[in-house]
Amino acid sequence: MTGVRGPAAAGLGKMPRAEQARLVVPFEDNRHLNRLLGEYDGHLALLEERLGIAAHAHGNVVTLTGPPEACEIARDVLENLYARVRQGEDISAGDIDGLLRHAKAEAPAKDGLAQIRTRRKVITARSPTQTSYIQALDRVDLVFGLGPAGTGKTYLAVAYAAQCLERGQVERIILSRPAVEAGERLGFLPGDMREKVDPYLRPLYDALYDVLPPAKVERDLTAGVIEIAPLAFMRGRTLAHSFIILDEAQNTSAMQMKMFLTRIGEGSKMVITGDPSQIDLPPGQKSGLEEAVALLSGIRGIETVRFNSGDVVRRDLVARIVEAYDKAGKNG
Fold it and tell me: Which residues pair with 62 in a beta bridge?
């Protein structure tokens, strides 16, 4: 199947043979190996690149050669992925990166990787912070998820909401965003109200269609079981037995944030996500997000999870872009 590839082979050539480990990892059912190893053994190639090891697959065995700790991590990753494949889960390069993030964490999750399960797919945490986020959603009824784009904070919230709806833990999902990103007022945009607000709310639709069957999403939108609306539509309502998500919350004023927070009713859960470094409010207007986080710190039933550039799961390039902007901000 595969031999020793480029950079990993070069790195191994510099390591004294006596310091190299050699681990043989067997898999009892080779019917699953194509999905485990990836197209053209791409998953093995990724482990080689990330860990500086060599990986060779033959029959139902994968042989790992390189630094002892790195080989042990690679074995754990392969065994974890194999267990998922046997359960019928799809795996990708992102899952490998997620397992590597967890393995390299200074304080690994005690209970393993957190998961969200909907009828359409299983979503597994791809960073220790994502695991902490999902566990916070399990524990409390109000969670703030703060951090840069690409960390999964909104997607995981929508997936968790879908899981709660399918399990009968809530009766509705309500998704909201402040419609301020483009600097335009809704009344001046063409079309009816749904056409006016859809461009602002499209990321929430995309997440829903990814975790639930499209036909179910359409039925639930029509029936009002799933509601997607701009923040202005939340005023005066009490939302009971619902899973409520406010996305892009850094673009709320202090009054808007207070209004939204007080919408939570009996039997409801609420998630508020945002990136405090990407505020699009008019100059001089203070964001209500960080103020709310500070005011509510330490209150029982409320938790805040902060993501950083190391949690970006879209692709390495996005993480490098976020890191560059963070560095420029600190130097400025």
Answer: 25, 57
Tell me which residue has tokens 């879209």.
314
- For helices 6-13 and 42-51, what crossing angle results, to 10°? 40
Strand 61-66 to 226-230 pairing: unpaired
Residues 6+ apart with CB under 8 A from 109: 102, 125, 128, 131, 132, 135
Block means of pLDDT (10 residues each) for the chain, 332 residues, are 46 58 87 86 89 90 92 91 88 84 66 85 90 96 94 94 96 87 48 60 87 93 91 88 95 93 95 92 88 94 92 67 71 59
Phi, psi at 28, each rounded to 5°: -70, -25
DSSP 63: E
CA distance 294 to 299: 10
Residues 275 and 296: their CA atoms lie apart, in Å, by 18
Q: Check if the beta carbon of residue 125 is closer than 8 Å to that of residue 113.
A: yes
Does the pTM surpass 0.85? The reply is no
